[in-house]
Design goal:
InterPro entries: C-typ_cyt_methanol_metab-rel, Cyt_c-like_dom_sf. GO terms for molecular function: electron transfer activity; heme binding. Keywords: Signal. This is Cytochrome c-553I. It comes from Roseovarius aestuarii. The protein is mainly alpha-helical and about 180 residues long. It has 2 domains: about 25 residues, no CATH class; about 150 residues, Cytochrome Bc1 Complex, Chain D, domain 2 (Orthogonal Bundle). It is built from 9 helices and 5 strands. Strands 1-2-3 form a 3-stranded antiparallel beta sheet. Strands 4-5 form a two-stranded antiparallel ribbon. Strand 2 and strand 3 form a beta hairpin. Helix 5 crosses helix 8. The longest helix is centred in the N-terminal third of the chain and has 19 residues. It starts with a helix and ends with a helix. The N terminus is likely disordered.
């Protein structure tokens, strides 16, 4: 029994190294091929999949779209206290960069708007409803695309360095939402 433990540890380390070197499933390397993430079209600085779901856009030089940048800012003003910086999760709440990859857009919106409570013998988690919070609701798509970009590692940890300018339509939508 004693001799098997180092072999298991070695196998786990080798498998982890392979995943790091080749990219784990859902990594930025695969994002261009994933219809749930890939940009199908752009409208006034907003990017969408072929199913009309908001998505992110990262140029070859690392420039990100405005909504992803805005999502970084909004996430860190409203969400990171519970869910940790850059969507990485915490001991208090799950990693939203993973949740955004596992949930579809409509489920994500539903949980943010209405909240969710899971209570069982092994779990007690509460996500408060943010449906009345304009600092979340006016930027919900921005937060979503930022977390998608983090979930695929298309956007690294930390403040994004380059961003597209905010379009006039995004500015008008923001002003209308905030009043």
């Amino acid at each position: 029994m004693k001799g098997k433990t180092p072999m298991r540890l070695t196998a786990v380390l080798l498998a982890s190294a392979a995943l790091i070197l080749t990219g784990y499933p859902g990594s930025a390397q695969e994002a261009d091929d994933d219809p749930n993430i890939a940009v199908a079209y752009e409208e006034d600085g907003r990017y969408f999949t072929e199913d009309d779901i908001p998505t992110y856009n990262v140029a070859e030089d690392g420039t990100i779209d405005w909504r992803t940048y805005s999502g970084f800012r909004r996430y860190h003003s409203e969400c990171h206290v519970c869910h940790g910086p850059e969507g990485e999760g915490s001991t208090y709440a799950p990693a939203l960069k993973i949740s955004a990859m596992e949930m579809d857009y409509y489920d994500f919106v539903d949980v943010v708007v209405n909240g969710r409570k899971v209570v069982s013998s092994s779990e007690n988690s509460v996500m408060p409803a943010f449906g009345d919070n304009p600092n979340v609701m006016c930027y919900l798509d921005d937060i979503y695309v930022y977390l998608k970009a983090r979930g695929t590692d298309a956007v690294a940890r930390g403040r994004p360095g380059k961003k597209e300018p905010k379009s006039d339509v995004i500015r008008e939508d923001e002003n209308a939402c905030l009043g």
